[in-house]
Amino acid sequence: LFHDSMRIILEPLFAAGLNGVEMVGGDGVVHKVHPILAAYVADYPEQCLVTLSKYGTCPK
After folding, report:
1. What is the DSSP letter of 28?
2. Which end of the chain is less congested by CB atoms within 10 angstroms, N or C?
3. Percentage of the chain modeled with pLDDT above 70
């Protein structure tokens, strides 16, 4: 469920990264940009959820 939800949420960002999006810069000029998701910040319980790991266990 989590991964399907993230796929739906991030789909517009994926398309924008491939095709580019026109955005106005601070100088007022229109630029074509290709945004990317560079990092995903999560606390330990969220990391376990994303990786489908068991919470509180030590990997060996």
Report:
1. S
2. C
3. 95
